[in-house]
Structures are given as structure tokens and as C-alpha cells.
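Before the break, one more example. Copy the sequence into your notebook; we will annotate it together after we see the structure.
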Amino acid sequence: MKRIKLLVAALCLAGSVYSQGNNYTQDYTKYQGLALTPPMGWNSWNKFACNVDENLIKQVADAMVSTGMKDAGYTYINIDDCWHGDRDSLGFIHPDAKRFPSGMKALADYVHAKGLKLGIYSDAGSETCGGRPGSRGYEFQDALTYAKWGIDYLKYDWCNTEGLHGEGAYKTIAAALKKAGRPMVLSICEWGTDQPWKWGPQVGHLWRTTGDIYNCFDCIKDNGSWHANGVMKILDMQKGLRQYAGPGHWNDPDMLEVGNGMVTNEDRAHFTLWCMIAAPLIAGNDLRSMSPQTAAILKNKEVIALDQDSLGVQGYQYAVKDSLETWLKPLKGGDWAVCFLNRGTGVQPVNFDWKKEVITDSLSKAILDAQKQVYTLKNLWTGKNAGTTKSPLKGVVPAHDVLIFRLHQQR
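Here is what the structure looks like once it is written out:
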């Protein structure tokens, strides 16, 4: 009997130890219910790079409201690299005291008071791309710190990550954010190296599919050890990825360069195609001094509505003829967006006979059949009605520009 009691006690002790071990199992998944449409906001990097401080962020938050960007749907004010100061003796990160003398909590309170959300940046490696302290080895401390500050969005980069595996590193920060207890959007900025679209949907809310964007229409910027890509180069890299995107998990072709040096028609094409492919709309210009043309592009609510459509289907390239591309995007309720993109340097004619094109999207199974259903057309950049699908569409697309229509079923 004594031997039986000892055996039972040993089994209970083993069960207790095993149970305690289970307490250390991590939840490597993202917060659910966030980014059900592609995130919209602003990020400091494209325009200001490392030249960030609390006055700039406050002024941009003010401009987000005063310019009508907030009313158009932009929510996040995201501080990119170079906000960091040092870690203290316990390893906790602090902001640069000269650049952010009031601290991040006070800045988050300022942004939140305007009805906006604050995002921040870190890196999976030992150092950020700008040479500041990375989060490697400090993931749980950093997540606790961000939660304490009131951060709503984390962009997590991939510099100085020697020996790390992408999926594992991003699962670690996802677990840290979960443990910290404050819901945050996790932006995976791993540049597409480890095919994040395959594992990212469970771990983050968006993932970069490419390296950095550059403010030109169709070029490559050689930076020596690495290169950045123009808008069209980035667009081409999205092929084959649309099946991975949807509510709460988005392909990210990088931030917008609208207002950063391209001409108006190129900015318009850039913005339109990002909306067609359900990309996050993260402005990267100086909101305090943008031109009326830039503001009109970034705030076009009918084009934004394509991006923010709750069906969450990424658009696709349907046809190519010379330099003219036809792009389609199924929308909720049976509507469609149809975009004609001219990548060339000369004017391109459009002659599209709706009744000769019975279109079935293999991903969403949506059908555009003008033989059975009449659709009204609205030009989303002019705001004018453009007839119906009873007649062929005829027009022209200027160089490096777009025509885009929303097709609505006549009842």
C-alpha cells in the first residue's frame, strides 16, 4: 500500500510539473479583429528618414486632421526608424531624450486625443536599419514597453538578423505582443525574403512582399549593397500573391510615394493600383505642405473605397496589349472596379466591348457578364457617369496614367 501511495504521489508531482510547463507555452498568433480592411495612415520614413522628433509627429497628427486625411479614413501616425535612445540597466528601451523629451506615452496621448492611433518601429535583429537598438533578445520587454506607452501598430524590420529565421523571429514578437496584453497591428517588414505570405496570415496583419519602394514610376535605384524599386517594378512583384490576402491579412507592396516627386498622373496611377490590389495605404509625404493635387489623390474617397472594400479581394491584371494593362477587382455586392493602366510614354486608346468579355475571377468566383447584367459606369477620377455596359467603352489613357471605373449592377 505504501508503494502505491508513493507512486500516486510521484504521478501527481509529475502532473504538477507538466502543468506548470504548459504555462510557458506561447501564443504565436496575432491579435484577431484588427486590420479587417487594409490599414490606412502615415509613416515618417519615405520623406523624413531618420529626421524625426516629437514636434514633427505632433504637427503631422495635426495636419492629418486639418487636411481632411482623417475624414478620408487615415488612422495611424507611424514613427519609423531612429526614435530610439538607449536601453537602461534592466534592458528596457527608452526614446531619444533630445528628440522625444516628453516621452512616448505623452506623444501617444496627444495622438489619441485627435482620434488617431500611434505606430512605432523596431527590428528583429540586434540593430535597426538605422543603427539603433533592435529587439533581438528583448522582444518581451519591448512589447511590454510599447503596451505601456499606448502603441497601436508595430512595424518590425529585418536588418542585422544574422542566423535568424523569418517565421520564427516574427512568431516571437507576435507572442510578445500577445503577452503584453495590448492589441497592436503587426506589420511584418521582412521584404519577402522568407515568403511571409505563406506563414504571415496567422502571425501578422500585413507583410512586405518586396524590398523598399522608390519615388519613380518605373526605375531601379542602385544603393550599392541593395536597391530600391520604382512603382511599376513593385507592382510586377505582386503577381501570384493575391490568394494570400484578405480581411486581417494583407500583402504589403510598401508605403505610398504620392507627393514625393513624381508628376501628378504618375501619383494618380500609383495610388489607383495600390487601391486595386488592396494594399495598405500608408502615406509617406509631408502632410503639412502637400499640394492640392496630392491632397486630391490621397483623399479620393471613391478610389479609397475600392481598397477598403469589405470583400477583401485583391485585384488582378486581366489583360495586356502593348503598354496598356486592364486590371479588375471584384467588390462586395456584385460591383467591380475596372482600371486601364498605361505604362507607356504615349497615349493609348481604350476600346473595351463589355458584352464580348464574360469574366470569372478564379479566386473569388465573382462573375462579370454584361450579356446578362447591365452595369452603370462611373469614372472615379472625374466623378462623372460614363454610360453603361450596353455600349463598348471608348477612350484614351495618357502616358503613365489610368482610367478607372466602378461598375454597379442596374436593378
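The domain at 316-409 is CATH 2.60.40.1180 (Immunoglobulin-like). The CA atoms of residues 15 and 100 lie 50 Å apart. Try to locate both features in your own notes.
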